Amino acid sequence: MTTAEGSVLVVGDLIVDVRIETDEATARGEEVEGRITFGGGGSAANQAAWLASLGVDVRFVGRVGCDSSGDALCDELEAHGIGVHVKRDSEHPTGTVAALIDQDGERRLITSRGANAHFQVSDVPHELWDGVDLLVVTGYLFTRSSICSAGRSLLAEANGRGVPFALDPASARLAASFPGERDFLEWTRGAEWCFPNSSEARALGRAPDDESAARSLLRFYKGVAVTGRNGCTVATSSTVHFEPAATR
User: Which of 7, 94, 136, 240 could form an S-S bond across to 65 if both were Cys, CB 3.0 to 4.6 Å?
Assistant: First the structure.
């Protein structure tokens, strides 16, 4: 998707991940033992880190608060070799998501978007587009009216510059409740690739299975790769096939 000389521009969420795990059954009002860990996260930031691990030149744009959490997140991205161009928001704190994981491995997410919910297209400096071969965005840029117009303006900027883009819908619940679901699909129409997980694909494609969902989403995207526990369903205009997950 990129040339040897080109860069990937990733724009989206950068957030503190709080992971809370317990092996004990919990009841209302009870205290249980568990494990609590903190780390960097955000679907866009995670994609940036994976791309950098593959040797891709990555530039990341996001928004954090003027706080120590924001400092730590930026330092973590830089440690991956990513070019960090993060806007500091003096009015909103760095975002946080808490994942509550029970003894069965089921999880519940509680999210405070913080500064992420106030992205502006001006957060992306014009000079940062120089040498960019691909833009990667997540669905979070389109989930709130406060930033939806900025997300659409970002895609218009990429289109005007002839830069293709890839899309990660980011959340099944959000995918099912985008403001004007059909509007979301139209706004993001033309993506080179859409990378939903199984739940996201079925919600957006209104389909009962991954293959049907992928075929449905091809009406809007040039390529669709639906990721699941057992592998990935890859669909293009010429073929649909299933790639099993690698075994260790």
Answer: 94
Pairing between strand 231-236 and 223-228? antiparallel
Position 1, amino acid: M
Structural domains in the chain? Answer: 7-14+41-94+113-244 (3.40.1190.20)
Query: In this predicted model, what pLDDT tens digit does every residue of 91-116 receive, in sequence order?
Result: 999 999 999 887 777 778 899 999 99
Q: How far apart are CA 143 and CA 63, in angstroms?
A: 16
Q: How far is CA 163 from the centre of its chain?
A: 19
pLDDT value at 172 more than 80 = no
What are the tens digits of pLDDT across the range 178-221?
555 568 888 999 999 999 999 899 989 999 999 999 999 999 99
Residue 176 has pLDDT above 70, yes or no: no
Cβ atoms of residues 32 and 22 within 8 Å: yes
CA proximity to 185, closest of 173, 201, 198, 197? 201
Supply the DSSP string of 33-72, one letter for each residue. --EEEEEEE-HHHHHHHHHHHTT-EEEEEEEEESSHHHHH
pTM score: 0.88
CA nearest neighbour of 222 among 144, 161, 134, 132? 134
Task: Say how far apart CA 172 and CA 213 lie, in whole Å.
Answer: 13
Per residue in 28-38, pLDDT tens? Answer: 788 888 899 99
